[in-house]
Amino acid sequence: MKVSLNVSGFETEAIFPDKDIEQIHKPLVEKFTRLFEQKKERTIIFLCAPPGSGKSTLAAFWEHLSHQQTNVEPLQVLPFDGFHYPNEILDSNYIVRDEEKIKLRTIKGSHETFNLTSLIDKLKQLKVKNPTWPYYDRNLHDPVDDAISVDKNIVVIEGNWLLLNEPVWNGLHELADFTIFIDTDAKFLEERLVNRKVRGGTTLEEAVEFYKNSDSKNVDRVLDNSIPADLTLFMNQDGSFQIN
After folding, report:
1. What CA–CA distance (Å, rounded) separates 210 from 71?
2. Sheet holding 231-235, edge to edge
3. Whether the predicted pLDDT of 122 surpasses 80
4. How many angstroms separate the CA atoms of 220 and 186, rounded?
5. pLDDT tens digits for 176-235?
6. How far apart are CA 134 and CA 83, in angstroms?
């Protein structure tokens, strides 16, 4: 199926194999509805995946499917990226790695550059009211507070660090009703991330250097240091999925 989706504020053409839709994606959307019917409260789904894995597009497709099927509860995608610290904070704060002082702005996207306290607060609010949710504006390259009104009974939160096996982060999953992790080959993600940078106007040399210094570290950390999810999907190089 070829479908036009709104992903992070941009219209995106995506293709999903019909076999995956019938065997994986529709059953998952139906499962989310069953969870909601069992719990009788807002149901929170985590979709955790490394950079370049297409998690935002996948989540948007699930939302699309939920509005196409008459037997399921419509869901709402809530992006994790809105919890980035603003650039003014990233520019004025540092962390120390291997005795080296590193400005947070230079590692934007790593878990240290997100406001975990705010995320936990919003996750707790989801169970008791309809909160607003922050959004990462890719034109401003900064988060915008209170940009999304949450009004659906099922929400899919998608991000890199939702299952990170680090102190405090490793308790986030307790605030979710169901967790999903996308696993794949890191080398495949390198090709996707480098190509994405080039399409955005970066030279190939710059894109490779950025991957080496930034993206690769995040990819490896997500793939190697995430706690087990309730369900793991493996993404093949052709973009299809299989259940592990």
Report:
1. 45
2. 75-79, 154-159, 43-48, 178-183, 231-235, 241-243
3. yes
4. 7
5. 999 999 999 988 898 888 887 888 788 999 888 888 877 899 999 999 999 999 999 999
6. 7
166 φ, ψ (degrees, to nearest 5): -135, 155
Tokens of 56: 């935002």
Is this model's pTM higher than 0.85 or not? yes
Which residues lie below 8 Å from residue 206, measured CB to CB, with a gap of 6+? Answer: 197
By CB atoms closer than 10 A (0-12, 13-18, 19+), residue 126 is: buried
Residue 49 burial by Cβ neighbours in a 10 Å radius (0-12, 13-18, 19+) = buried
How would you classify residue 217: left for phi > 0, otherwise alpha for psi between -120 and 50, otherwise beta?
A: alpha
Residue with tokens 């520019």: 91
Residue 10: how many CA atoms within 13 Å on its side-chain side?
10
Distance CA 198, CA 54 (A): 17
Is residue 204 a contact partner of residue 194, using CB atoms and an 8 Å limit?
A: yes
Cα dist. 215→58, 106, 190, 194 in Å?
20, 11, 8, 9
